Amino acid sequence: MHPVLRSLVAASVVLVAACGDDGRRSSQLTSDVTWHWQLQGEIDTGLEVDVYDVDLFEVPDEVLGRLRADGRIVICYFSAGSYEAWRPDGMAFEPAAVGTPLDGWEDERWLDIRSATVRDVMTARLDLAAERGCDGVEPDNVTAHENDTGFDITSDDQLDYNRFIAEGARSRGLLVGLKNDLEQIPALVDDFDFAVNEQCHEFDECDVYATFADQGKPVFNAEYADEFVAAPGDVCMASSELGVRTIIVPLDLDGSFRIGCD
Asked: Tag placement on the chain: N or C end, fewer CB within 10 Å?
């Protein structure tokens, strides 16, 4: 194992001990659970929601402990498909596996999801999620096959990788969500416990998630458009009709405001 990965896993054991957690709850998601998604800023743990989706690396131990003590389901976010130099395991990626920048996110670069090194890093991240006491994970950027990554990533490559992540999560007792990747939902719905989407109302794509809803699996959706912030009524009504759990939040996901269609 790469030295950075080894030290990361070792550090995660200390984090668990600091939280005083004596084992993860076997939390089960239902289609009607409410959620909050925040990856930056001080997290308000007092919201009346069932699920918190927070950053795997950034969420403080005390926040994790408080959420779990309050009976919340804690989903831990990490990027499964992009290189972020500021992460503590960033040096574990081989340079050949780091591709072109993500559109709109110039400080992130696509990863070659076929790389054994990339999979080793993601395995360590799943270990960290389990050891920190997360109930589930939200692996992001799992649509390399649809983007200009600098690599020849096929749909089959993406299916294989997404299933690798899902199987790794479930084998550790973690719930796992499918992030966006709309075109592969029919093939992947059975491998994932919930879905996370961005802007399905803005792009008129929410009906694609009927497969998840039909199986009683929650569909968590975030909208960012100013028009929805100003007048959320119609989008909330549409969400209710479709069985989608929509929140309207800032693009930075910094907790500065939240409008929930709960």
From this structure: N
pLDDT in tens, 120-152: 999 999 999 999 999 999 999 999 999 999 999
pLDDT of residue 5: 52
Q: Whole-angstrom Cα distance, residue 42 to residue 120?
A: 31
Q: Does 188 have pLDDT greater than 70?
A: yes
Q: How far is CA 82 from the centre of its chain?
A: 13
98: region left, alpha or beta (phi > 0 left; psi from -120 to 50 alpha): beta
Expressed as residue numbers, the domain containing 105 is: 3-260
CA distance 69 to 202: 36
Task: Determine the pLDDT at residue 29.
Answer: 86
Token pair for 173: 């007792």
CATH code at 45?
Answer: 3.20.20.70
Cβ burial of 229 (10 Å; 0-12, 13-18, 19+) is middle
Whether the CB-CB separation of 177 and 169 falls below 8 Å is answered with: no
User: What's the structural domain count of the chain?
Assistant: 1
Token look-up 């968590």 returns 220
**Distance (Å, rounded) from C-alpha 123 to C-alpha 137?**
12
DSSP-assigned states of every residue in 119-131: HHHHHHHHHHHHH
The mean pLDDT value for 179-196 works out to: 97
Tokens of residue 6, six digits: 């080894």
Q: pLDDT per residue over 80-120, tens digit each?
A: 999 999 999 999 999 999 999 999 888 999 999 999 999 99
Cα–Cα distances in angstroms (integers) from residue 160 to residues 142, 166, 174, in the given order: 11, 10, 19
